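Quick one, T. Sequence first:
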Amino acid sequence: MPTLIRTALFVPANRPDRIEKAIATRADVIIIDLEDAVPLSEKESSRSNVREKVALFPERVILVRINPLDSPFVKGDLNEAIVKGVNGIVLPKVDKVEDVHTINSLLHKLEKDRSFPDGSIRVFPLIESAVAVQHIYDIVSTKTRPDRIDTVMFGAADYTLDMGIEMTMKGDELFYARSRIAIACRAADIAPPVDTPFMIDLENTEALISDAKRAKELGFQGKLVIHPDQVEPCNKIFSPLPEEIKKAEKIVNAFEEAEAEGVAAIRLEGKFIDYPVVKRSRDILALAAAIDRKR
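Structure tokens:
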């Protein structure tokens, strides 16, 4: 079953105090970061913090952002930081299909050496460049043995740097990349993607909410966040509203009654209801149930 991710909170691996504060939030997922948030001089020593915190909080969904495949740190990250209890890795700078096969080979060996179940370490590729956006469907539809990709995450900071453009409050510059990523995930029948962090103004909650709503409208399931204060607003945006749940229940109940009588299309409160509408309603109820199980 894909991981529920309305919010995934980044926290630097070299700050064990912040890791515990992050774990205490209501973020669905914690991402302990060994890449951008950690200086070169502390990358190797920070791995022990990952092992310690994962062991202390086995009930939490914890991912580790390792360093890129072409870095000198990647094998050490895997060997020293990916231990029992880590739910998966966030892999930065994924540009092509070959990257997926490379990380699968490395993880397959690690799982075998440590007697982990095959495929237990899930992979969340970070899409951060023009070439990655261009190749996105090939990346998300790549088949490995065992199956490895949960979903992908979008990193707009590196993407806009690569494109030579500015990130803006309005976010028009991200529309194409976001759309292409979300469509590719749906076409490949994997979980919806997770959107880029909002980094322009950390104190502007209204701008954060607007940015999250744009991502949701395009088909993202949640958002990467970089400060605990961003967790609750994003959790709310990516959760069904009480009135949406009530409406979905009404649609499903009415349709199931009609279906039992041999009817596959009905009108409910003036609106046409058929199988696609019912599927959407069931999806809303399934998401609501998954959120309730986390409480």
